[in-house]
Design goal:
about 70 residues; mainly alpha; about 65% helix; about 0% strand
Length: about 70
């Protein structure tokens, strides 16, 4: 479990845009079936998801930001 100081430090590391992109990342990853991060990055880099606005950096940021990952 992360304490509040750790959460604040991670949250302050990213801009509002990056956090928004992380939310999109979580949403898209849920839609496609919660594949591993490695597979998700491959899908995005190989353009296997039509009109996907994400890139590898967005996915890696989403992994670093605590969020709704179950």
């Amino acid at each position: 479990m992360l304490n509040m100081n750790t959460l604040d430090r991670i949250k302050n590391k990213y801009t509002v845009k990056k956090y928004s992109d992380a939310c999109k990342t979580w949403s898209i990853q849920d839609i496609i079936g919660r594949h591993s991060t490695k597979d998700f990055i491959r899908y995005v880099e190989d353009n296997l998801l039509a009109n996907c606005p994400l890139n590898k950096v967005d996915i890696l940021c989403a992994e670093d930001i605590p969020g709704p990952k179950l």
